[in-house]
Specification:
single chain, alpha/beta, Rossmann fold, eight-stranded mixed beta sheet, eight-stranded parallel beta sheet, 23 helices, about 40% helix
């Protein structure tokens, strides 16, 4: 099947040297008239340029928030290239040059995540990360910060202790915040993102909010309209009065094929690549562009990606010519330059710009299909191969031999489920709790400050209450938030009733997911890569080749790679009672709780009780119907229950309530 390319009209705009698409012109023109924008255009349509150009034209400082660190690194390159094309002098701050004397650059471009912040701290010889962050973001000149939402959440939860007040004050100099790929936030993360935007604006930062998305759900758009009070919604058909400058190819034509993967998508991908190995290696040698990759493979499972890499190496491929971008590996090892093939998972489906002519991919839902196929056809014609099952093949076979992209997108939306944003969750009790938790984190740190004046503490507490109340009024959630505030106050007075609430507030983070732990992976060492990274406990127990070994002295878990066959069976040691189903529990009340792997204890079976975790129990049949983003453990004396932990527990608790109400 041939998927036709698309073109977009270009216009001359006095604020930019390069010709712009009409939505880029429209955003530039409305920049000073509005304080909130939602830009909804397809992958590859220049959303990053659309939001960056007004910032540099008005010489503003801005914060760009990205959901993944891989996307941060990719967008650093994109924004740098844009600034240089527009004739803006820029210095990219890094741990290697942070102590050098700066010249008269127009802008500083700074990429910060947890790992890089530690590198900055070491390079600047500072005692803590908060001090390093203060120095990096101080508004001495126009700056563009590229961060993840976790860092922003930590700053505005006072997690950087003494540095926190000054950090928050610095953000008042950053007039604009841009959230990219906003459709990726769901459930707890969506609730946190909504309240975080409101909270920062109440602190005096982010007077302008720009949200970018290729595929937002109508439910999320409805929430954003309430939060931002009628933001300007722009798409690729936004009107502009500027002079036409012709057209530009936005996406090139594609050959789209389905190749039946049977029950083994890895073998199907391996066979396809192996057959074309000489052709791909020749293409790499013939192209001098280090950013060019002859083939990209995107699989649903990290374990599948590992297995495909090892199969290629066993067949004689040079591991150094295989790029890998996935979880369960050191982030600094995620390299693509000069590679013949890049193998990845969802870690590369968002935003990363590949110059490739061949894509092999799996798709689990409509959003992942459209994001992944958008990786090819951006710089030239290409081929996209779907590693499909019989259902997918039959559905796509009904399309004509030549289709427009819009027709393909419509078919994709019919074949696959949409990715549930759980947009209903923030309006529930548990959704309100996870938002109030951030305000409570601030309140607790203020109250714990021995140097603070009591009257000032009381004033801050009252102000936080007003922030929550104002948020509730704006979103229409006054009752839910008022009830949560009441329950939190009761929980703070002590006792075991409601203790889970205080424990959740103590531990909550932006993502609030299954805990991650330091890992030393002998299999990664054998592949010639750094063996040290972080992984979540469920993955280690479920997919580890052998039982992991925990060494308390180094607080590190030693493993030997991950199995390619069936996962280990996991089971919680507690039997639990039927009356425990559907209520939030805490591991504090179950100190002997262990996670059994194939009915055996391991050296990390106890790690879930090393710090408090909340969890909820539901019937096993109910758990089996849950979204894959809501992981669970089997439990109960007869194995007929499932336990879901941390932030996912709050979502599932509300889902169970709805199920019971509809029963």
């Amino acid at each position: 099947m041939r998927v036709l390319g698309t073109t977009m009209r270009l216009y001359h705009h006095p604020a930019a040297k390069m010709p712009l698409y009409q939505h880029q012109c429209a955003l530039l023109d409305a920049w000073e008239q509005r304080d909130a924008f939602i830009l909804v255009t397809k992958t590859g349509s220049g959303k990053t340029a659309a939001s960056t150009l007004p910032v540099i034209y008005h010489k503003e400082s801005a914060v760009f928030v990205y959901p993944t660190n891989a996307l941060i690194a990719d967008q650093e390159r994109s924004i740098l290239s844009l600034l240089e094309r527009e004739g803006v002098s820029v210095r990219v701050l890094s741990p290697d040059n942070v102590d050098e004397k700066f010249g008269g650059e127009d802008y500083h471009l700074i990429r910060i995540d947890a790992h890089r912040l530690e590198e900055f701290r070491v390079a600047m010889k500072l005692r803590d990360k908060g001090s390093a962050l203060l120095r990096l973001i101080q508004p001495s000149r126009p700056k563009i910060l590229l961060i993840n939402p976790d860092l922003l959440y930590l700053i505005f939860s006072l997690k950087y202790r003494r540095a926190s007040p000054e950090l928050m004050a610095h953000f008042q100099a950053y007039r604009t915040v841009v959230f990219d790929e906003f459709h990726l936030y769901s459930g707890v993360e969506l609730a946190h993102a909504l309240f975080l935007i409101h909270l920062v604006r109440q602190f005096g930062g982010f007077s302008r909010v720009v949200l970018l998305s290729a595929t937002p759900s109508p439910e999320v758009l409805n929430l954003l309209n309430k939060l931002l009070e009628d933001p300007l919604l722009l798409d690729s058909e936004a009107k502009t009065f500027h002079t036409s400058a012709g057209e530009r190819i936005a996406t090139f034509p594609l050959n789209f094929e389905c190749t039946g993967s049977g029950s083994d998508e890895v073998e199907a991908a391996f066979a396809y690549l192996q057959e074309r190995r000489d052709e791909l290696e020749a293409a790499r040698k013939a192209n001098s562009d280090e950013g060019y990759v002859p083939a990209v493979v995107i699989l649903n499972s990290v374990v599948s990606a590992i297995r495909l890499e090892d199969l290629l190496v066993e067949a004689g491929w040079d591991r150094g010519k295989i790029g890998v971008v996935r979880g369960l590996m050191a982030k600094e090892e995620r390299q693509i330059a000069g590679r013949v093939v890049v193998i990845g998972t969802s870690a590369i489906e968002v935003g990363i710009d590949f110059k490739t002519g061949l894509l092999l991919f799996e798709a689990g839902d409509a959003a992942s299909f459209l994001q992944r196929i958008g990786r090819v056809g951006r710089h030239g014609p290409g081929t996209a191969i779907l590693l499909s099952d019989s259902r997918e093949e039959a559905a796509f076979r009904s399309l004509p031999d030549e289709v427009h992209r819009d027709a393909l997108e419509q078919m994709v939306n019919r074949i696959y489920k949409g990715r549930d944003a759980f947009a209903w969750f923030p309006a529930t009790f548990c959704g309100a709790l996870t938002m109030v938790a951030q305000a409570e984190s601030i309140r607790r740190r203020v109250e714990e400050d021995e140097m603070g004046i009591e009257t000032a503490k009381a004033e801050i507490g009252a102000w936080l209450d007003s922030v929550i109340d104002g948020f509730g009024k704006r979103m229409g959630w006054e009752k839910q938030l008022a009830l949560v505030k009441k329950r939190v106050k009761q929980a703070r007075q002590g006792g075991t009733v409601g203790r889970w609430i205080t424990e959740y507030i103590d531990e909550v983070g932006f993502r609030s997911s299954i805990p991650t732990v330091p890992v030393y992976d002998w299999a990664e060492a054998g592949r010639g890569r750094s063996p040290e990274y972080e992984a979540d406990l469920i993955t280690l127990l479920k997919w580890g080749n052998r039982s992991p070994r925990y060494k308390e002295k180094s607080d590190t878990i030693y493993i030997d790679g991950f199995r390619a066959g069936k996962p280990h069976k996991l089971h919680l040691s507690e039997s639990f009672e039927d009356e425990d189903v559907g209520i939030i529990l805490t591991t504090t009340d179950y100190p002997s709780l262990k996670v059994l792997q194939d009915n055996h204890l391991t050296s990390i079976s106890h790690l879930f009780t090393m710090r408090p975790h909340i969890f909820v129990l539901v019937p096993l049949d109910f758990a089996r119907r849950l979204d894959w983003r809501l992981p669970w453990f089997r439990c109960g004396s007869q194995g007929n229950k499932a336990a879901i932990f941390d932030g996912a527990a709050l979502v599932v608790c509300e889902m169970w309530k709805q199920h019971q109400d509809n029963a």
